[in-house]
Write a structure and sequence with these properties.
mainly beta, 2 domains, 13-stranded mixed β-sheet, 2 helices, 15 strands, globular
């Protein structure tokens, strides 16, 4: 009879110890206290405050490419790009769970570009270039891609010299003049929404492969520079299409 009374208590104790071992094994040193309260029950007490214990979230892979875009057919020669050149030095993903530009949740996915930026021609058909290929990315939700461009004079290409400029990012208009390219909010940064559906961030699943296709376009804008005075500039904008290549 005594052994039968102890059997459930031993089972509970073993289960509690196993649970504690599993929690401790997650890498954040979680501890649970297990004790017998004297009346045949097992008491499990967690540390107070409760420890932060996160399980591995798994990894997926991501390929990010830039596609070429079609030229503007309705623009006048003065604002119609015939050539667009950019130089990308960094590609980052933003976690959908954290807001703010200064957030540490910006994840660099193409570190090789810091030493060798990617120079790309954006007009025409086909693919402009690959920014990252099968990069390992923690599984989770991501809502933005941030491209950081080389600044004026940095990593200027032979194409730049051929068009009489030392800029790294510029457009050559149909009438022959050269326009610098800026992002909407920064001269060296472009932020592109990343969605799997309207208003839904992209979810990268563990052990999945996802391809992100970016389309960068130069758009004319007119900004006010005084009373009844406007100035033309060309800004670089982007859009993204995501496709899961396998599960």
């Amino acid at each position: 009879m005594r052994s039968s009374r102890w059997f459930p208590r031993i089972s509970l104790l073993c289960g509690a110890l196993l649970g504690a071992a599993l929690l401790e094994g997650c890498g954040n040193s979680c501890f649970l206290a297990v004790s017998n309260n004297g009346n045949g029950s097992v008491v499990i007490k967690a540390s107070n405050p409760p420890p932060s214990c996160s399980l591995s979230q798994g990894m997926g892979t991501m390929t990010i490419i830039v596609m070429r875009s079609a030229p503007c057919v309705s623009c006048t020669a003065a604002i119609r790009p015939e050539h667009i050149f950019v130089t990308v030095r960094s590609v980052q993903l933003h976690s959908a769970n954290v807001a703010g530009a200064a957030s540490p949740e910006w994840l660099e996915v193409a570190p090789h570009l810091a030493a060798e930026p990617a120079r790309m021609a954006l007009l025409g058909e086909g693919m402009a270039g690959v920014l990252s290929e099968n990069a390992p990315i923690p599984a989770g939700s991501y809502d933005q891609v941030r491209l950081q461009l080389s600044g004026r004079g940095a990593h200027a290409s032979s194409e730049a010299s051929a068009y009489g400029t030392q800029r790294s990012n510029f457009a050559v208009m149909a009438d022959g003049h050269v326009e610098p390219l800026d992002g909407r909010t920064s001269d060296t940064e472009i932020r592109i929404p990343l969605e799997s559906a309207p208003n839904d961030p992209l979810t990268l699943l563990p052990d999945s492969k996802t391809e992100i296709r970016l389309i960068l376009q130069a758009q004319p804008e007119f900004v006010s520079v005084g009373t009844a005075s406007w100035e033309h500039r060309t800004v670089l904008t982007g859009s993204a299409v995501a496709a899961r290549t396998n599960l």
